[in-house]
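Case study 2.
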Amino acid sequence: MNADKFVPQHSHFDLPRLRSVQVAQCPALSTQHSALSTHTSTYLDFARYKSLSVKHSALSTQHSALFTFRPYQRKFARPLTTHHGVWEMREGIILRLVDEAGNVGWGEIAPISWFGSETLDQALNFCRQLPKEITSETIVSIPDDLPACQFGFESAFDGMGSREWWFDYFGCAQYKSAHQPGLRENLSCSGLLAAGEVALQQWQTLWQQGYRTFKWKIGVDAIAKELAIFDNLCRSLPASAKLRLDANGGLSYEEAELWLETCGKIQGEVSAEIEFLEQPLPVKDLAGMLELSKFYRTAIALDESVATLQQLISCYQQGWRGIFVLKPGIIGSPSKLRQFYQQHEIDAVFSSVFETVIGRQAALNLAAELSRKNRAVGFGVDHFFAQAAATNPESLWNNF
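Prediction:
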């Protein structure tokens, strides 16, 4: 796929009217400038989201747009191995909406069915049954069992408003908006390390690219082997580094205890910080993770357990007050997530679903808007793909 050419369409640049949220220190997300949909009208004020009803969201005013979509495939440089299995190809759908004024909104549906979202086929079937012209009511009515569709369509619809994204020279998303004047947020990125011994070399390359937080996949090899690699990795990392461990729900309760005990022990011997152990137990064992969170020094984060907004609400209602790893691309409606945030103070890490620049920029927008604990966002994943991603939507659209 050749995706180097960018000719903006239906774009109107009036930058002095906009103020910025900067998402900085995110190395390797991109190396070129790009622009998603732009428009100079004032976006609905964030206070409009205070209502608990989605009818009072930005989608409440009835608007229509012409709708087209294209499926895509992106091959991993080498298969991504987690406790869930081996993943060779990222597949998704690019959405394009055009309103009566010619303004273009881009969205992306990037499901991960084994995490709890709809399947790609279900998303494609939903897109195929839609008419060529859709309304805001169409988007509001997308059912909760299609969370990746909710995120993609709502992001595209928002994109026809006054939101504007682009990538600076260092590859960091910057988000300009009229709806939160003066808000500025700096977010650092976490770099993903592959499972196994390759992490011992991989972190060094990512460190040179500017990453200071790393996430390493565990629960893949024999636990004794992984613990030995972990010991080596921790003793190799510089003092200012942070390390996250991601088990993808692949540990038994006893194995999780062993990991947490080892983390506590080695944390007293090395300068690098072990930030948290992510999803040690299966989704069904929230009680076990609640129990573990009370007795060990190393924090626990939920990931698969809070893949969708409904799961997030459920875990919160059941008493989870630890770290939540949120994947905007599959969590569901951004406006409903904002409503949840207005009611609840949560410690969240925003993370990638290996989406393209379209979904990533929409996700980073949410992270810049909602992040409260200054934790690195988990979007350092481009090195897992065989070919560098295009840095603008038109290139993606024209080459799929």
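The domain at 189-384 is CATH 3.20.20.120 (TIM Barrel).
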